[in-house]
Amino acid sequence: MFELTVRSRFSAAHSLCGYPGDCARLHGHTWTVEVKVTGDKLDQLGMLVDFKDIKKQLSMIIDQLDHRFLNDIPGFREEGVNPTAENLAYYIYKTLEQAIAAIREGIRLKEISVWESPDAYATYREEFN
Ligand SMILES: Nc1nc2c(c(=O)[nH]1)N=C([C@H](O)[C@H](O)COP(=O)(O)OP(=O)(O)OP(=O)(O)O)CN2
Ligand SMILES: [Zn+2]
């Protein structure tokens, strides 16, 4: 099994409704997003999948989040979901899942991690048999 990892960053504000402290107020982070992709077979170039193809998918979702108020993004606002690191990891996973699998047969999105700061991050993954 091979595993590829690509990271990117974006800046965005959020507030955590109902949070018993400062994080309920408007504030921002430089978020880091990490994508992990797995699969068994390399292509004729010796790649599981071109990093560029993963970066392209990641940059599309990053463009939708960068310099935004995350609470206003559909998926958070409409559902009344707080844009925590956990919920962002889930949101990005669900947004990228199909597009990553479509890059090449036999590869799949393993997990998404989202850092709020260099010291704190959340990961979402789905278990497959
Ligand atoms: N499980 C989670 N806990 C917290 C989240 C989260 O998304 N998931 N988010 C927050 C707030 O967004 C908060 O801004 C982050 O707080 P913290 O990690 O403490 O980061 P700071 O930059 O404020 O660091 P300090 O060391 O506290 O100054 C809170 N919890
Ligand atoms: Zn925060």
TrEMBL record:
Q: Which family does it belong to?
A: Belongs to the PTPS family. QueD subfamily.
- Please state the Enzyme Commission number of this protein: 4.-.-.-
Tagged with keyword Membrane: no
Q: Which UniProt keywords apply?
A: Lyase, Metal-binding, Queuosine biosynthesis, Zinc
Cofactor(s) essential for the protein: Zn(2+)
Positions bound to Zn(2+):
H14, H27, H29
Catalytic reactions of this protein: 7,8-dihydroneopterin 3'-triphosphate + H2O = 6-carboxy-5,6,7,8-tetrahydropterin + triphosphate + acetaldehyde + 2 H(+)
Record-linked InterPro entries: 6-PTP_synth/QueD, 6-PTP_synth/QueD_sf
Its name, as the record gives it, is: 6-carboxy-5,6,7,8-tetrahydropterin synthase
Biological source species: Desulforamulus profundi
Q: In which pathway does it act?
A: Purine metabolism; 7-cyano-7-deazaguanine biosynthesis
Q: A single GO BP annotation from the record?
A: tRNA queuosine(34) biosynthetic process
Comment on bound cofactor: Binds 1 zinc ion per subunit.
The active site lies at: C23 (proton acceptor), H67 (charge relay system), E116 (charge relay system)
GO molecular function annotations of the record: 6-carboxytetrahydropterin synthase activity; metal ion binding
Query: Any keyword Cell division?
Result: no
Give a Pfam family name. PTPS
